[in-house]
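P.,

For your records, the input lines for the assembly:
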Amino acid sequence: MRAVEDALGITIPQNAQIIRNLIEGSQYVQDHVIHFYHLHALDWVDITGALKADPAGTAKLAQSISDWPNSSEAHFKGVQNRVKTFVESGQLGLFANAYWGHPAYKLPPEANLMAVAHYLEALDWQRDVIRVHAILGAKNPHPQTYLVGGMALPIDPNSQNALNADKLALMKQLLAKARVFVEKVYIPDLLAVAPFYKDWAGVGGGVGNFLAYGEFPLTPNNTERLFLPRGVILNKDLTKVLPMDHQKVSEYVTRSWYDYAGGDGKALHPWDGETAPHYTGPKPPYDSMVGDGAKYSWLKAPRYDGNAMEVGPLARMLVAYGSGVKPVVDTVNLVLKTLGVGPEALFSTLGRTAARGVETLVLAQQIESWVDALAANIKRGDLKTHNGDKWDPSKWPSEAKGFGFFEAPRGALGHWVRIKDGAIANYQCVVPSTWNGSPRDASNKRGAWEEALVGTPVTDPERPIEILRTVHSFDPCMACAVHVVDTHGREVTRIKVV
Amino acid sequence: MNDFSPGLENVLARQGVTRRDFLKFCSAMAATLVLPTRYVERIADALATVKRPPLVWLEFQDCAGCSEAFLRASRPSVGDIVLDILSVNYHETIMAPAGKAAVKSLDDTVKEGGYLVVVEGSIPTKDNGIYCTIGGRTALDIAKQVCGKAAATLTVGACAFYGGWPNATPNPTGAVGVKDAVPGITLLNLPGCPPNPVNITATVVHYLTFGSLPATDQLGRPLFAYGTRIHDNCERRAHYDAGEYVEEWGDDHARAGWCLYKMGCKGPATFHNCPTVRYNDGTSWPVGAGHGCVGCSEVAFWDTMSPFYRRLPNVAGFGVEAQADQIGLGIVGGVAAAFAAHGVVSAIRARQQPLARHESDGVSAEGKEG
Ligand code: SF4
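Structure tokens returned:
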């Protein structure tokens, strides 16, 4: 959308901008909570440990960190019974064959039980709060009301077939429910678990360069005023947030299974990008990826001004922190103070996981006000949700090109489009997991995951839970195979990152 | 499988859910499945006593949108499914183990047999399938083995159905759906982008209750969910019949909720229960939120239903009820040449008396696809 809007010079109505912000903001909150509890927590929480817990102790712990109502001994006893019945059934399903009992699990049984209870509660919570997407976008996943030029969703307080006061009220209710869970469950859990894993504030730092396109425009198409700012940080220097220029983005395929017509040694800007697959890896089925090693990935290697970059919540929070965005500065400082660590702890696996929590809290406390902003706009009589000036392709110039930015929950996403005679001539996406999971480039520079894994201690190569912790902390978008090879070329282990 | 089984009703009872509430849930399930009320008890029995059948969920060329949809399931909820109803032994996105340990979960299940398999994502066939490999094996290799030995295979989403967007022209990886990648297996398709979780869970409940898959059309889609055209259940149909159309996004007619046909709605050519069950616990659906249907449950919809904003082939005098059906047939006719081999046209004919079969006792399992 934004790439085409940029190419054609379309400004979307204020209402459409707010609706998009609401959809994307609520997506952050819901998605980050799912990531924490359902995709990342079991790297830190031993479910089997929960069976040994004293539910009274869990209740005491839970009540000491939050006044969340579902914190009674009876509640935790019920959860423990459910887990017990499940384990005794002998059918462990999704939880079979995991690294339970691994010495790297450090939580006391009572904390494990609390986390398992919240894992289950979060499952029900996420289903309900994301109904905001259905109100504004028809359904979730894959909202369907986005249009070039705005949104298809009409606004009319006097219609039952448009966004009206009833639907605004329902959204307020759902977003309040979202915020309360974040304030009373997610953040207290994060702060309760983190102290047991403080050594992870020194592991998994990565490339130390951060890129954020920024998100949540506060005026129509005005990228100068974004709730989360745009910017670049190099070499962990938080005192200098550099301006972002998308012309400095380019992609290598030196180590990727693609060919460039002009040779693989040079990077291309996405407007001139090429996608010509050429597989040279081992013939499946194969046990080991170790081959000639020249090319080894389906991901291209994006670089910013030649630098490998990390994108995602940590990048966004660091750019906002370095730019002095008040709610972010306050929340980051609060978290650092609670954990008794300095800002340098942010450059780590634990810092990445904490930054996601910070961002969730900041957004959860912000988005309800965007419903108010929308209501205020409607009250002024502004019902417009779509700018149709350029809807008809006959009104387009014969050639145009645009850059569309988006901060997906897992990081900076860029789309580049070239339009010729009313049709797409070239379209390139550089997605968050391409940045973070990038293979090496022409100068052999590592991407963010690879760099973050360097120096990660692995106590048991057969059960490398430490590697999962760091890779999962990036919220990778793919169920893919990551191959970790030790310096002698022997495969240390093969992990499906899921 | 282990003899000990919690059974959904017992589990719910321990959580304070009464038999009355449990039966209410079973009634809702029966309604989704378009079953007569006498089946409520049967569903209740099946869910109360059944052992947890194993299920594996495979992801190939996918975006995990169908998995996300599955996480939104509410009747039963995904937590209930995972802990109390099924034994979900493999699902890359949400399972706890990784790497070799995860592969072991899959291998163990396949070795034991008697499992259901859900496939999400398309299967690339070009260049020996190297465009999607997991643990060093191609998607095609995994699908052949795992689906081949399964009690039944459910595809979720447009990609596992007919290849979805990876299959869209020019289809660089030779992506196909399960039907073409692994012919001859017991297969049921739940297309959509993504499918509605209500239909996924209802299919599973049907299978647990009756021991067979629900009756399908000739594209392998269950009639309870894909037996009626969107256009025939659409809340805006009266406006279509009255010739009242949205002419521009956000105009007065859009605000009043008039028909989206002229804005490209593909409801007249799409079979799906979106207007009746809606999405996200009945909150809304595309037409309800002001955007036309894009036909995501139909064959190769990225090619056959696009451009999404161009109206369906112009049938003279649309807006008259008799001709509404002509539009449906018109579009099907338009793509029939390309898909004749897949039996689209005869599938349309089969839809003329879909529900009758539910009335006979044998809720037939016609999931078998050639
Ligand atoms: S064309 Fe679309 S909006 Fe109009 S009645 Fe049919 S399904 Fe509904």
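Two observations worth noting. Chain A touches chain B through 82 residues (CB under 8 Å). Confidence is low (pLDDT under 50) at residues 479-498 of chain A.

Regards
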